[in-house]
Amino acid sequence: SPPPPDACLPLQVLQAAHCQTVKELSACLSGQSLRLDCRYENKTSNPLTYEFSLAKDNRKHIIHSTIGVSENAYRSRASVVMEKNLVCLLLQSFTTSDEGVYMCELKATNDYTGSQTKNITVIKDKLEKCAGFSLLIQNTSWLLLLLLSLPLLQAVDFVSL
């Protein structure tokens, strides 16, 4: 017999309760570093915890985390930048020995529905070069340059008058 219609309800409620969703995980090569962009949608202002890990040789290696403990081998090479809807991992001196399946796991504080994860297989030869560190950072430096050059522009205008 078919289940009663309200059997779906708890599942829908659980799905709606997710405070954050991992939208996309992308990888690129920035110089000698691997860059992983973990984009997410946030539905809460609760603090976000994250974990970047690498699965290789049938083992999970934690690279950078606020959830678990990072492995020494990666800790000195890894750094994370957090922006609105983006957690970005930079792994320096990336070599073929760092290839494998990378995972980004996000969890918002007090989100009892568990964490959200996305995986990506990273192979050095197949990585594309990064287009630029971040639009926000690029824009900030561009704006800063503009602001710094304003007095110069005004001085030039003044001289040309």
Q: How would a crystallographer describe the biggest sheet?
A: 4 strands, antiparallel
Overall structural class, as computed from helix and strand content, comes to alpha+beta
Q: How many strands appear in the DSSP assignment?
A: 8
Order of helices and strands: HEEEEHEEEEH
Q: Write down the CATH class of the domain at 21-131.
A: Mainly Beta
CATH architectural name of the domain at 21-131: Sandwich
The end-to-end span amounts to 88 Å
Rg, alpha carbons: 21 Å
The low-pLDDT segments are: 3-17, 133-139
**Percent of residues in beta strands:** 35-45%
Strand order of the largest sheet: 1-2-6-5
Mean of pLDDT: 78
Helix content: 10-25%
**Contiguous helical run count:** 3
CATH topology grouping of the domain at 21-131: Immunoglobulin-like
CATH superfamily of the domain at 21-131: Immunoglobulins
Overall shape: it is globular
Membrane topology: Lipid-anchor; GPI-anchor
Subcellular location: Cell membrane
Function: May play a role in cell-cell or cell-ligand interactions during synaptogenesis and other events in the brain.
InterPro entries: Ig-like_dom, Ig-like_dom_sf, Ig-like_fold, Ig_V-set, THY1
